[in-house]
Amino acid sequence: MLEIKNLQATIDGKEILKGIDLVIPDGEVHAIMGPNGSGKSTLSYVLAGRDGYQVTGGSAHYRGQDLLALNTEERARLGVFLAFQYPVEIPGVTGINFLKTAVNAVRRSRGESELDAMQFLKLARKKAKELGVGEEMLRRAVNTGFSGGEKKRYEALQMALLEPSLLILDETDSGLDIDALKVVSEGVVALRSPKRAMLVITHYQRILDYIIPDRVHVLAGGKIVQSGSKELAQELERTGYAQFTGQAA
Amino acid sequence: MSDGMDQVRTLADQKYKYGFVTDIEADVAPKGLNEDIVAFISAKKGEPDWLLAWRLKAYRLWLTQSEPTWGRLHHAPIDYQDSYYYSAPKRKDGPKSLDEVDPKLLETYEKLGVPLHERAILAGVAVDAVFDSVSVATTYKGKLEEMGVIFTSMSEAVAKHPELVRKYLGSVVPYADNYFATLNSAVFTDGSFVYVPPGVRCPMELSTYFRINAQNTGQFERTLIIADRGSYVSYLEGCTAPMRDENQLHAAVVELVALDDAEIKYSTVQNWYPGDENGKGGIYNFVTKRGACRGRASRISWTQVETGSAITWKYPSCILQGDDSVGEFYSVAITNNYQQADTGTKMIHLGRNTRSRIVSKGVSAGHADNTYRGLVRIMPKAERARNHTQCDSLLIGDQCGAHTTPYIESRNPTARLEHEATTSKISEDQLFYARQRGLSQEEAVALIVNGFCREVLQQLPMEFAVEAQKLLAISLEGSVG
Amino acid sequence: MSSALSSPAWLQSLRQTARDRLESDGLPGRRDEAWKYTDVGRLEVMAYPLAERPGSPDLTAAPASGERTQLILVNGFLHSAPAQLPAGVSLTRLQDAQEVPALLGRLLPEQGKSFATMNSALFEDGLVLQIEAHTDLEHPIELISLGQADGPPVAFHPRLLLVMGKGARATLVERHAGQGQYFSNSVAELLLAEDSCLSHYVLQDEAMTAVHLALTALRQDRGSRYQAVLVQTGGRLSRHEMLPFLEGEGASFSIEGAYVARDQQHIDNTTFVVHRAPGCQSQQVFKGVLAEASRGVFQGSVLVERTAQKTNAHQLSKALLLSDRAEMDAKPELEIYADDVKCGHGATIGDIDENALFYLRARGIDDKTARQLLINAFVAEVVESIADDSVRAAFLAALAQHLSHLEATA
Questions:
Q1: What is the DSSP string of C183-202?
Q2: Residue B401 and residue C342: Cβ atoms within 8 Å?
Q3: What does the pLDDT look like over A199-210, one tens digit per residue?
Q4: Domain for residue A237, yes or no?
Q5: Nearest alpha-carbon partner for C151 in C123, C124, C179
Q6: Chain B stretch 405-434, residues whose beta carbon is closer than 8 A to a beta carbon of chain C
Q7: Cα–Cα distance measured from residue C298 to residue B116, given in angstroms and rounded to the nearest whole number
Q8: DSSP of B26-53, one letter per residue?
Q9: Could you give the 3-state DSSP secondary structure of residue B467?
Q10: Number of structural domains found in chain A
Q11: pLDDT at B133 over 60
Q12: Which residue in C153, C151, C145 sits closest to C185, CA to CA?
């Protein structure tokens, strides 16, 4: 269970999150929707522990642990996975090397044995095939020269390999065509389980056609201004965010 | 090379429209340079002893120095004895107000487009006009005085604000700095002085117009601008000279000092006579400009549009001493015919979180050579310093040269420096596209060059931006391929 | 000096000319623009005595030759060469050449202060390798220069002239290693005839107590291709200078360099590309990692002469500074006299990319491992373009070994 209480954060002294309250029980999928600049990406970075984001108040606990007290990789090993809106290109670091290092780091922290090169390659190939990630992509440098769709599939592949328990999808739908959206969404849906919580951050409702949320929250002006069932997403698609931006200001 | 390009190359030669001579009686010192001349200049200006002593110290050092040779510049040796070091329009006691300024001078500045009358077009710009060696008029003085802003000629500043001059003169560019700065320290004649008191935002652009008129005269002005805590000033400088066959020397020094939270914006449109299409005549422009961001979060921004002079040798620089201070350098240098420019900047990062940005656009045409030369130095204490440099060169025709020589030095791991440079020719595709839409070749080139320089031109105050755009087009006339 | 006595007249005169010039011009120092960042003129190594021909050298630093044609120089003397050279390849020593080999010394700076002049005055066994036209060598030729100064310090001046015939294809591996205090001042002249193709892999892994200077000058004729990988990890002070002249239309020159420095090491990469013919390409990429109190220097100059229209020239220098005592100085320079060209350069200095670091950490990789991954990848990428597997592995191993020192002290 993810429990966020009155979370406030600033960047360069500028207030972005102004008191977020959110509880996501294991097994549930929550969506956060909101206009540009409402603080959606900031929330995902704060939960993942990115430098430069100052938490000025409130708390965030995951499975009873104080997330904010952990550094980035400790959170990742606890099971927090952020699917990036813009996955970072890392020239020179091959996918295989990167994925194996990450998988083994996570396995170690869970007290599981590390995979050797062969075991890992077998696993990676299997998962890659399921997600339509070409094998040559594993040999290439991480995200380097990938198209927008390839990058998102690659994120999905990492999810499948790292088996996180809390997924944060930061505008995963941006820059994706319908086909790629479908593949990536199916990858996410396949990970749905009673033990896993998901937070889907999005501007548009369309990804929620594939990943059906249990709850939908509207984030505007750094606060959650409305919460509802999945129908809220459809309603927003019709009415837009203008009502909330006015309300938040 | 397309037909269109050849056609343009044969178009009318570039015309220098500021090349007229004003016939006016001048008060001159004898030709040549020695200690007596230095003393003569000092006496003419009624200077205090300490300043004469400073000049002589500089002169004696200068005798032991030699001209720097590292620039990518070629010129016949300069005969420093074959020049006049002081030339002033004759007058009785110096003008008290505009009404007393020689009408011929006022006419000259009208022709140059610099209206001295306060009712003139450039309302809102206070102008100090320097004619050969002396400042002839400063407008808007009264209004500035009300706010405590001092904007006056250097001579007057020495007389009226000796404590400020003594404190800051040579504090950014010491008299021993380099050959030309040392020469300037010995023989500088006039220039502008600006002091903006704490917290004052100077309400109008301050401007100096420099003009070399007399024959065989060197112009050695010295400008000093001090922005006290939390103040702001924008300063513009324009320059022209008559067409003459001889080369004339211009060796100015500009010093800027920005204290805590102060900002100085310094813009130059340099259009000294560039010489004719065969490279005869023109101004030798050897200038030392430097700003010290002494205070916390201070900011100095240099913008220059260099279209004139036979030779340009100048590197407006920033010493980023105060934490969080910012230095900027935006430059357009256009060389045509046989012009040579070796220009750029130095950004010396001393303080924490200091930032600098360099944008240089060089356009080379005819037989000209155009060099960007710059230094970015991060000292060990400059934690998290940032520099970004973009330097682009455009070549027009196959007889010119475009060069880039940056020095990038870092001694702090938290600093981040990025430098990018490109050199290319004017794109045939762009030319074709513009012409297909009905522009003449010349218009198309002017358009593309303006686009190429846009990032820099945008930094100029409005009044200058329009002027500068026209100047770019004129400078490239007849050369364009 | 021994070999100089028995050398042919042309060689004696060449040496004498060099000696005279050395005496009149001296050696470059900090006041010379090209040596602004690397001051060697005053180093005590200049006074090191010339090495004598070693009796029984220690060859443990030389790798097994495998299928490579291996030539070993010890302190500048030719120690071993295979009895049988591949077909189309010949090897002579300069002192055994009755006539002056074509173009010997012609690519080197004619006047002024120069370490190449010092080399010309003082080299021992100068090697001339000739590769006949249209020869296509399957395996690399490997030149190993070992410095051995078990006792007092020594100086030596390795010298190579490689002549590639028309359409010849070859790989030259050059390795510099050694032990003790020594000064190695090597010069290589490479002549690439029309349509010839040379891959040149240089590993400078000298003793950490050595001073290493090297100049590689090359002349490229029409359509020739030169591709170099240069790794510098050794030496307390080192400078590798490339001086390519693109003389024939459509020639291409490429160099990728990687360097790792720690302690008080000083590593300089200087390249001066001269484009003389139209339609040529040149590419330079240098990547360095600077730890502790080390200093890196990159000077990359591209000169495009008026005759070299349609030139495509690029250079890039990237340096990671890992310590507040490290220093990087970069001077990428363009000097362009032809208008129809595409030229550019870039230089960055900074520490590890924070976005990449965050991304790795967000996947559960700890900070230290993530940094190591990024640093290794940063320089290893350069070596990836080595075509020969065993050579690539050897270069990677040298890099890894030096990088592991950084990690241990980080």
A1: EEEEEEEEEE-TT-EEEEEE
A2: no
A3: 999 988 889 999
A4: yes
A5: C179
A6: 405-425
A7: 52
A8: EEEPPSS-SHHHHHHHHHHTT--HHHHH
A9: helix
A10: 1
A11: no
A12: C145
Q: What is residue B15's DSSP assignment?
A: -
Looking at the domain assignment, is residue A211 inside a domain? yes
Question: Residues near A121 by Cβ (< 8 Å), separated by ≥ 6?
Answer: A96
The answer for residues whose C-beta is within 8 angstroms of residue A194's C-beta and 6 or more apart is A26, A27
Per-residue confidence band for B226, with pLDDT thresholds at 50, 70 and 90: very high
Check B421 against C346: CB less than 8 A apart. yes
The whole-angstrom separation of Cα C66 and Cα C140 is 10
Contact C226, C128 (CB under 8 A): no
Surface-to-core class of residue B94, CB atoms within 10 Å of its CB (0-12 exposed, 13-18 middle, 19+ buried): middle
Q: Can you tell me the mean pLDDT for A176-194?
A: 88
Q: Is the Cβ–Cβ distance between C326 and B410 less than 8 Å? A: no
In a domain, A174, yes or no: yes
- Determine whether the interchain pair A71/C377 forms a contact, defined as Cβ–Cβ distance below 8 Å: no
Residue that the structure tokens 């922005």 belong to: B227
Q: Residue A143's pLDDT is what?
A: 87
Query: Which candidate in C352, C353, C359 is best for mutational testing of the A interface (most A CBs within 10 A)?
Result: C359
In this predicted structure, the answer to whether residue C5 has a pLDDT above a threshold of 60 is no
Whether the Cβ atoms of residue C182 and residue C148 lie closer than 8 Å to each other: yes
CA closest to B401 among chain C residues: C337
Cβ within 8 Å of residue B142, ≥6 positions away: none
Find the radius of gyration of the CA atoms of chain C.
Answer: 21
To which residue do tokens 């030496």 refer? C235
Among C355, C358, C374, beta carbon nearest to A93 = C374
What pLDDT shows up at residue B200? 95
Gap from A177 CA to chain C (nearest CA, Å): 24
Is the CB of B410 less than 8 angstroms away from the CB of C349?
yes
Q: How many contacts, defined by CB atoms under 8 Å, are there between B and C?
A: 121
Query: Do C334 and B404 meet the contact criterion of CB atoms below 8 Å apart?
Result: yes
Looking up tokens 């010192």, which residue turns up? B29
C35, C272, C273, C336: best to mutate for the B interface, most B CBs within 10 A: C336
* Average pLDDT of every residue of chain B: 82
Cβ–Cβ under 8 Å, residues C304 and C246: no
Strand intervals (E) in C66-193: 69-74, 77-80, 89-93, 127-131, 141-156, 159-164, 169-192
Domain of residue A197 covers: 2-89+164-244
Compute how many other C-beta atoms are within 10 angstroms of the C-beta atom of residue B245.
10
**pTM for this structure?**
0.85
Contact A222, A53 (CB under 8 A): no
Question: Can you give the CATH number for the domain in which A227 is found?
Answer: 3.40.50.300
Residue A179 domain-assigned?
yes
